[in-house]
Design goal:
Signal peptide: 1-23
Structural class: alpha+beta
Keywords: Signal
Shape: flat
Number of domains: 1
Strand order of the largest sheet: 4-3-8-9
Distance between the termini: 46 Å
Helix content: 10-25%
Order of helices and strands: HEHHEEEHHEEEEE
Strand content: 35-45%
């Protein structure tokens, strides 16, 4: 009995060491996304559309995954997020500049020209527990990596943005024509210092970069 108890203690000690090591590895993070909805993996689209509505998208997008591929391709998720893990430590900030090629005013259509700018508040946000525990979304949070997950997001408040070629309102913008450039900062209230984390860039959904997924926000 004592030996079993001894191994349990040793096992828990190494679990604690492992958790502490993991906490040290997962620090403040950053990523950007320029994601055309039709590029979200097929098995995720239905849940993603429902999730976006829960997070503030227009309810009419709840069935976007059932629309035609051409209709899905009209909508983009363009955003930048600054993230933190495990516990609230800092105030986070993100800025997203959205650039696009193609004809726009007098700009060179072959270059990426600034079209929209977004900025978060200095904040620490987390997806509501009720959403995380919803049976529809819970499996996506079960194996998502470090938790809790906190963030500041810069992007369209309604998440999904209709984007088409200038003068062709029913023609989707081709892939790689939109570039999101994110800038990321955090403020440490203990040291009273602001840290510039640099920038991120994305021309795609960026779903494989360090495991960041649609539900990480």
């Amino acid at each position: 009995m004592k030996r079993v108890y001894y191994f349990i203690i040793i096992g828990c000690f190494y679990c604690l060491q492992s958790s502490m090591a993991q906490a040290a590895v997962f620090g403040v993070g950053k990523f950007s996304r320029a994601c055309r909805f039709d590029q979200i993996p097929f098995g995720t689209k239905y849940i993603a559309a429902k999730f976006f509505v829960k997070m503030g998208a227009n309810p009419e997008f709840g069935d976007l995954a059932s629309k035609s591929g051409d209709e899905q391709a009209m909508y983009w998720v363009n955003e930048a997020l600054t993230t933190d893990y495990f516990q609230v430590r800092y105030f986070l900030f993100a800025k997203a500049n959205v650039y696009a090629t193609g004809p726009y005013g007098n700009a060179d259509p072959n270059l990426y020209n600034l079209r929209f700018s977004y900025a978060s508040k200095w904040s620490v946000e987390e997806v509501k527990k009720a959403i995380q525990s919803d049976p529809l979304f819970a499996p996506s949070y079960a194996n998502r990596g470090p938790a809790p997950w906190y963030s500041a997001r810069a992007g369209e408040s309604g998440i999904l943005q209709r984007w088409y070629l200038t003068n062709f309102p029913n023609t989707p913008a081709p892939l790689n024509t939109i570039l999101v450039v994110g800038r990321h900062f955090y403020y440490d209230p203990v040291n009273k210092s602001t840290v510039d984390l640099g920038e991120t860039r994305a021309k795609d959904c960026n779903l494989t970069n360090l495991g960041f997924g649609i539900f990480d926000r």
